[in-house]
Structure formats: C-alpha cells, structure tokens
Write a structure and sequence with these properties.
Helix content is about 30%, strand content about 10%. It has about 475 residues and is of the alpha/beta class. It has a seven-stranded parallel beta sheet, with helices on both faces. The chain has a four-stranded antiparallel beta sheet with strand order 5-4-8-9. Strand 12, helix 13 and strand 13 form a beta-alpha-beta unit.
C-alpha cells in the first residue's frame, strides 16, 4: 500500500474504483480529481467541537439516546449500555425472534460513526443503518420498501461499496429468513430500524452480541468500544418494585408505558424466543417523548432482573465491563433515565466492589439531568445519589451460610465523588447536604434557554475535576 493510502484515508486515488477490502480504510470523502481541492468535512449536529483528549480514559454508563449528544466529550471511552430496552422496533424483534435488546447499542454505534462528507461511502452506510421505515406507512408499504432493501434495489444502497453492501445485505437476508421461520407471529416492519435488523441478525448468526458489535463497528470504520452490560443470547428483562409494593415489568412499563401490558411467557423455550414476550407490536413513542408523563403511583424502591417465571435473578456483568473499571481513569454516570439506563448497569453481581476498590479511577462523576421524568418525579439531586448508592450496596447474589453472609457497605464517596449539574436545572440541588455526603458539587454554566449538557462543557468540567484532584 502506498504512503497516500493509510488508516486515515479520506480520498480515493485518481482513477481508483471500489475501496480496498480492509474494513479500516473506507474513504470518508467523495472521490475527487487529483488537482481538485478535497471537500470540507461536514460534522453532524452536536459534534462541532474539537476532539477530546485521548490521554484520559473513561467508562461511560448510559442509555442509547441520553448520552449521545455528549459522546465527543470522551475521546478514549468505553461505553457500557443496558440490553433490557423493550420499546421501539426492538420490541418487535424481541417478540418474534428474541435475543437481547440491541436498540440502545445500535443508537450509540450510529452516533460514533466517524464524520464523513455527504455522498461519501461512509456517509451512505450511515444513512442506511440509521434509516427507519416510516411510522405512517401501512404494513403493505413497509413490507414493499423492506423487500427493495433486502433485494438490493433500494436507493439507500447508492454509494455503498459492493463488498460492504453484500456483507450488510447478507445479514438482512438472514434476518428475513428467520422471520419466515416464524411467519405465524406476523412480524411488522412499520417504524422498523434497518440498523436494528442488521445488528439482530449478526447477533443471531454469531450467537454473540459482542461479535455483532464488532462487525457493525468494522463496517462503519468506528473504533468505538461499546460493551453490552450483560453478555447473553437471551432476552433480558428488568422489573421495578415500588414503595407501595406494586411491581412493574419491562422498561416500557417503568419509563414510558403504552397501551397493553408486558406478559411473562411460560412457553417452551426457543433459543431465539424472548424470555418475556411483549404483546405490543413495534412500540412507537409520541413526539413529545418523556416531556409529558404520568407519574408513577409510588417511588421506585428497587430495580432488578427477572427470569421467565417472574423470579428475581442475579446476572453476572460483562467481564470486560469489570476490567474497564479497573483500568480506566474516570467513571461517568451519564445523563439519561436513572432507573432504566443507569441502574441496570449497576444492579449486577460484583460491580459495586470493583467501582469502590478500583485503584485507577481518579474520579466518579455523576451528570445530573436537567429535569426529572416519570421514573424520578419529585427527586432532588440527593435522591439520585442515594438511588445509585443503595443499588450498589444491595447484595445481588445468593446469600452464603455462616460468617460469609456479612455484607460490606461502602460510603457514598466510594461510588460518586463529584456531582455535575446545570445552571437553571429544575432539580433541586442542596450543595451543603451533598457536600456533607462526601460528594463535591460543580455547576456548569449555560447560555440560557433549556439547560442541557454540551460536549465541550462536559469535557472542560471533567478536566477541571481531575486537575483539582492532582493539586
């Protein structure tokens, strides 16, 4: 390979055809004549700031969308995401095919595709994998468009090199074949995500979600380190116990319920069938999202994982997740849904002790949301901190006999060292009380309007926190 063709290749060589077969050398710009100036890179919204400092390593706990806007704040990051979301087009995949939820992971993978100029091969791949069949389509219209995509005749394939096209299309064909085996379940394509279909097919083919993530990252030239919090080929279900004794099953019922309850299925297990079968087809959310909600009848007292019989279970976390906590510099509890995005990454065996005893974590930073949602209605900043601490200090394991049943209760500062909140947040922050808990508070200035975290301000405040700890 010549000197012009390296891992950062942006323009095809003059007269070149399809890019090479290496998954790491896909051009991110439209091919131009040798004497023509290269087109400027058009960065996606929210990613216009300078790249983050790669000398600081992060472990970022978040959901699929809550932390997407600030991803560029973390240059060298390991993203840990839950696999328990049972909404959106993931709900339909789980209902018919099964497997872990991949919607949040797909959303983060799309977000971390490197910026590329419009019309370039990489941008064409991003457009395809980010495409969602319109929600206003009839079932017939959605199936017809899906058929065009699977057969390779859709306009969405334009600009995608043939090797990538046939790789992606091959897995979409595999996905279609799995649906045909379960035709009696009447899969609906309305509002379906092509990226979800591709990732679900890869997971089913390899019988490994990490392998599917690697394939997605390779095809999209992404060097993102994304870890599912649990490595499994089965559907993962969470439940919440309220203070009034009521139990809610499934992320949708906890966070943004829609018509029709989730039903625990006791049918004969199928390696591709879900543990909890959601009877709603392709859950679609209102445009207002979580801004309008009906509060829970009572506060959540506990979140836990359940099996097909509704019994509490204690899964083991992804070993790579635990390893990253012992080798990175900063742990970030990102903004997003507390009980359905952050807590599922904590309510697992062994996580608390690794966080508390890590010798490499220099700071454990909690990014406080700008406002509460259905899960946290009426919460103060202190309530967020206590929810995390109580979850981590709970015993997510079978209790041994004898003296071995003694529990270690860690102080709050073992899990959270810094609280970062926005100027103008609607959540009450009692700095004096939180400081007394051993957590330092830092306010981030905003430009007015609706307060929200920006990548630049997040990076700056974390650098300030680390600098203060080295003084």
């Amino acid at each position: 390979m010549s000197k012009e063709h390296n891992l950062h290749l942006q323009v095809n060589a003059p007269g070149g055809g399809s890019p090479g077969s290496s998954v790491f050398d896909l051009p991110v710009s439209v091919a131009k004549d040798q004497h023509s100036p290269s087109p400027a890179r058009l960065l996606p919204p929210g990613n216009t700031d300078q790249p983050a400092d790669n000398s600081i390593s992060f472990v970022v706990l978040s959901g699929g969308t809550g932390g997407n806007a600030i991803c560029s704040a973390f240059g060298n990051a390991c993203y840990v995401l839950p696999v328990s979301d049972d909404g959106g087009s993931s709900s339909e995949i789980i209902r018919v095919i099964g497997g872990p939820s991949i919607g949040d992971i797909r959303s983060r993978l799309i977000r971390l595709i490197p910026p590329a100029s419009p019309g370039s091969p990489l941008d064409a791949i991003r457009v395809l994998l980010a495409y969602r069949l319109p929600a206003h389509y009839s079932e017939r219209e959605a199936r017809e468009e899906w058929r065009d995509i699977v057969e390779g005749t859709s306009k969405l394939w334009q600009g995608i090199p043939n090797d990538r096209k046939e790789t992606i299309r091959g897995f979409l064909v595999y996905f279609e074949s799995e649906l045909l085996k379960r035709a009696h379940k009447n899969f609906t394509f309305v509002n379906g995500s092509i990226g979800n279909y591709f990732l679900a097919a890869a997971q089913g083919f390899f019988r490994s979600l990490p392998s599917a993530v690697f394939l997605f990252s390779s095809i999209t030239n992404s060097q993102a380190n994304i870890l599912p919090v649990i490595v499994t080929n089965h559907t993962v279900t969470i439940a919440a116990e309220l203070e009034n004794g009521e139990r809610l099953v499934g992320q949708c019922e906890i966070s943004h319920p829609v018509s029709g309850p989730s039903i625990v299925s006791f049918s004969e297990p199928d390696p591709w069938s879900p543990t909890v079968e959601n009877q709603r087809q392709n859950v679609m959310f209102e445009a207002a999202g979580k801004s309008t909600y009906e509060p829970l009848p009572s506060r959540i007292s506990k979140l836990f994982y359940i099996n097909a019989y509704g019994m509490e279970i204690h899964p083991s976390p992804n070993p790579d997740y635990l390893s990253s906590l012992s080798s990175h510099d900063v742990l970030v509890y990102s903004c997003g849904s507390l009980w359905t995005s952050i807590i599922p990454c904590l309510a697992l065996r062994g996580v608390a002790s690794v966080i508390a005893r890590s010798h490499t974590l220099r700071a454990k930073v909690f990014l406080l949301n700008a406002k509460n949602d259905r899960e946290t209605h009426g919460y103060t900043a202190e309530d967020y901190i206590l929810a995390v601490t109580r979850t981590l200090n709970a015993q997510y394991q079978r209790q041994p006999y004898g003296l071995g049943s003694a529990n270690t209760i860690y102080p709050i500062s073992a899990f959270i060292t810094d609280l970062v909140y926005l100027e103008g947040t609607s959540i009450h922050v009692d700095v004096k009380r939180i400081t007394a808990l051993g957590v330092r508070c830092t306010e981030v200035q905003t430009d007015g309007g609706d307060p929200k975290f920006e990548a630049g301000s997040v990076r700056q405040v974390i650098e300030t926190i680390l600098a203060a700890r080295t003084e």
